[in-house]
C-alpha cells in the first residue's frame, strides 16, 4: 500500500484527500455497512479471547442485533482484571502499544490502561492526518499538507494518547516537531512549550495540536506585550527577520500589538476538550485560524472530528462501533444502576443529547463501553459538506454536570462560557454544588488576574446574567425559586499556582496537577484555602 | 505612434490568454498553493506580454520596457519553480533565498543597465544586447528550470498512478517548451516573439494539467500533433514541388490562368496524397499503438475460442495464457461466482500466492463495489476509497499480498459473475488507458462464455449428483449397503495409485469404481435379486448393464472419459468377458482394476445366492484367476493395497 508520504511526494492530492477525508462523503448506508462489517470482525476476534468469552458467555453473537441484545454494556472495572500489569492474554488482538489515561479505575484506583493493536495505532496516525488536512483546508479536496511540516510539540508524552499521536504521524509525514520528539519528551511540559515557541520563531510553525488554553495564554502574553523571546544567533537569519518584519508591519498597519498570527501563518490548529468551543473566537483572534475540534479518548482512540467548516463533529466510521443512549434513557440508568438503557445506532439518531457507547474495532478490548461522555446531535446532515452524516457537539462528561434541584443542568462548558462572556479576566476557576440552608447553590471559586480590581458583586452579577443568557433553564430557576443560585468566592492571587506547584512536588500525574473545574473535592478546596492564607 | 505587425499581435493575444487563464485559476476551488504559484507565473507572463507589446509596438521607452520584460522572465521562472515544488509537496529551506535573489535580480535588471545593455526597434525588428551580468539571471534561472524538470521526470518514473504520470508528462512538456522558448532569446530568433508564443502554449498545457482531473493521454496528443504536422508538411512539399514544376512547364506554353492550374494541381495532389495519408496513419498507429494491435489480435483470438468452449478451466486457462503473453502480467486470478451466488471463489490463478479455495463473500466491499460500479477497480481506489475500510484485517492482508493492480468485473446477464484480478505488469509500470480498455473489452467478451461454462458446470454437477444418487440407490438394491460403490471406488483408486498412475488417472479410476454398476438401474429386481442361476435371456439383460452404464455417463463431459472403464469392467484378461470380448491390454487399465476390486467384493460380500467368504478364500480365488480373468500386475497391486488395509479384508461393505 502506498504510504501517505509517498502520495504527498508524488503530489497525488486527490488520493490523499479521499483516503483521509473521504469518509465525510459516505452515505448513511455505506457508513453503516462499514460499522456492521467491522463489528462482525471484532466479534470473531473477541470470541477467541478471554474478554470476549467472558462477555459472550458461550454464545457468540451471529449478528449485530444479537450483539446489541445479548452483550452487556461495560465500564472500565470489568476490564481491570484482564488488563492489569499489561497482561496480553485476555486481549482479542495482540497489543502493539499500551496507552494510559489520567483517569483511574474505580475498583483498583490504578490508572486505566488500554492496549492498542498495530492496526489501531496506524489508524491513530491516519486520523491525525485527517485532522491536519481538515484543519488546513477551506474546501473539499484542498490539500495544504507538505512534507516536513513543522508542528509544535504541545502535548503530554507517551504513554498518554496525545503523546502517541505525535509518534503515529512521525513516519507518515516526516513531521518536524518543535522541539524534536526525543528531546521534547524528556522536558517538563512548560519547558517543552517554551522551547517549542523559541524554535517556532526561528524555523516557523505550521500546525498546533493540543490544549486550547496554551494558545490563548500565548496570545494574551502577546497582547499584553509580555511575550519575550531571547535573541539568539540562530535568529539571525533572513527567514526570522522576514517573519518579524512582516509581523511588525502588519501590527502597525492595524494599529495594535503584534499578535501570534502576525508572526506565524498557521495552516491548522487541532484541539480537543471542553475549552475548544469556549476559546474558539479568542484563538481565531490571536492565531488567525479557528481550532478544529477533535474528540478522542484513550479507550476509543480518535473518534470524531469537525470538518473544514468548523460545524459539528462527525464520528469516523472505522475505529469503533457506535451506539447512543438517548438522554432520557441515560438519566434513567443513572437513577437505577441495574437498568440497561436502550441504544440507537448512528443512522437512527435524532436531534438531542445522547450518551455514547462504543466497541473498539481492529482487536481493541472495549466492548459496549460506557466512557461517560454525552454528545448533542446538532444536525442530521450538512448541505455545506454535502453529506448526510449526523453532526455532534461535545455536551459534557457525565461527571461534569451540575444538577440544581432537577431544574437546571450546568455543564463545565456552560460555566466557562459564561465567565468568558462576562469578560472577567481570570487566572483559574472551580465550581461546586453546595447547599446553603438546604438550598442548592452554585459556588464558583475564581482567581482573578493580578491587575484586576476586585468588584465581587459586579463580577457575580455579570456571570449570573451570562448564565441566564446561555441557559433559559437558569433564568427559569431564578424566577421559580426567587433567588440567584450563584455564589462567588474570590481566591487570592497565586493560590492555583501554589496548588499546582505543591501537586508537582508531590509527584502528581500530569493530568492531576490542576484542580478540576467541576466539583473539586473538599481536600482540594481546603488546599486552595490554605494557600490563600 | 504604434507599430502594428504580426509581432505585436502575438503579445496582444498572449495578454488576453494570460488574463483568461489567470481568471480561471483564481476562481477555481480550492485555490491551493499549487494554483497560487501558478498564478505567480501567469501574472509574470501577463506582465511580460504587456512589456513585450509595448516594446514591439514602440510605445514609450523601449529600453525600459525591455528591461521590465527581462525582469518578468525571472519572476516567471520563480513561479514555475514554486509551482513544481508544491506539486511534490516539497518545502525547501532555501526557497526564501530563491525568492529574495529573484526579486533582487529583477530590480537590478529593471533599474540599472548592468544586465540589459541596449534595446531598440529597427523597423519591426527588435535589436538588443545583454551585459555579462546577464549570467546572474540566466544561470540560476536555468538551474531552477532544470531542477524542476528533474523533479518531474523523477516523479513520472516513480509514480504508479497513471493519471499522475500523465499530469507529469504535460508539465514536463510545458517546462521543456518554456526552456527552449526562452533559450531562443540568445539566438537571432530572439527578435521574434517565439518565446512569448511558446510560453503561451506552456501556460495552456499547465492549466490543462492542473485544472482537469482526467487528462488526455499525452501519447494521443503527440500522435495527433505528429500526424497532422507530418501530413501537412508532406502535402505542402508535394504541392509546392508539383505546382512549381507544372507552372514552369505551363507558363512557357499556355496562357491558362494560374489559379485554375493551382486548383487542378491541388486536386491532383490530394488524389496522390490520399494513399500516403492512409499509410502515414497506419505507420503512426503502429509506432504508437503496437500494444493496441497486439491486444486487438488477442481479443479476436479469444472471442473465437472461448465462445465455443464450455469448460471453465480451459476458458480461464486460455485467457490467462493470452493475457500473460500479450500484456505481460505477473499475476492473474479468476474468482467465479459460486454457492448460490453468496461467494466468489478463487477458480484459477497464475503466478500468485492466493490461498486455494479463497473466497470473497458477496458482502465483501470489493465485490459490492464491482457489482455497483461495473467498471475497473484500480489499486489506488482500493487503497483510498472509504468503502474499503470495512475490509477485515485478514482480507486486506490476502488482497494486498496478491498486489492486484486492477480488479475487473465480469458482468453477464446484468450481474457480476466473476472477478478478474490483475497483478502488476512485468515492467512494473501502471496499465495504460488502452490496456485497461482492452481488459474491459476482454472481460465483456468473455463474461458470457464464463457464465455459460459456469452454468454448464453447475448443471453437470447437478447431473453428477443425480448419477451418484442413482449409484447409491443401485447399491442398496443390489448389495443392501449404501457405500458399496464408494468402497470399491476407494480401493480401485488406491490400487491405481499403487500402480503409479497420475492423480488425474487415479481420479478417473475412482469415478469408474463409483459408477461401474450404474447400468443396473435398468435391470428388474427379478433378475438382479434372483437367488438361483440366470437364464440365457436374463444373463444377456444382466450383461447389458455395462453398456447401459457407459451410455448414461458418456454425455457428461466431466465423466465421459470414465465411460470406457464402466463398459469394460466385466471384460476378462483372457478375452472371455463381456460386452466386447476385449483381451489383455485392449481392456482399459481402469476397467481391469475395477474388475479385480469388484470380484474381491463379490466374494467377500453377502449375496442373495450365497454367504460371504473369508478374505483368505477371496485372495486364493483371485490368485487362481490371475492371468486368465485378471491382469496379474493389477491383481498383485490390489493385494498389496488390501494387505495394507486390514479393515478392508473383512469385506468391502464393512
Brief synopsis:
Chain A has 533 residues and is an alpha/beta fold. Chain A has helices spanning 4-9, 13-21, 28-47, 50-56, 64-70, 76-83, 118-135, 161-173, 181-184, 189-203, 212-223, 238-254, 260-263, 275-287, 327-335, 412-421, 456-470, 472-481, 495-505, 522-532; strands at 97-104, 111-116, 150-154, 176-178, 207-210, 268-271, 292-297, 301-305, 314-315, 320-326, 344-345, 352-360, 369-379, 391-397, 401-404, 408-411, 426-436, 439-448, 486-491. The radius of gyration of chain B is 41 Å and the shape is elongated.
Report the average pLDDT across residues of chain A: 89
Please give the radius of gyration of chain B in angstroms.
Answer: 41 Å
What portion of the residues of chain A fall into strands of 2 or more residues? 15-25%
What is the total domain count of chain B?
4
The 3D shape of chain B can be described as: elongated
What is the CATH architecture annotation of the largest domain in chain B? Up-down Bundle
Name the average pLDDT of chain B.
83
Number of helices of chain B: 24
Please give the order of strands in the largest beta sheet of chain A: 4-3-5-6-7-8-9
**Which percent range fits the helix content of chain B?**
55-70%
Strand content of chain B: 5-15%
Number of domains of chain A: 3
- Put simply, the count of helices of chain A is 20
Question: Total number of β-strand segments of chain A?
Answer: 19
In terms of quaternary structure, the protein is heterodimer
| Uncertain stretches of 5 or more adjacent residues of chain A | none
CA radius of gyration of chain A is 24 Å
Q: Based on helices, strands and strand pairing, what is the structural class of chain A? A: alpha/beta
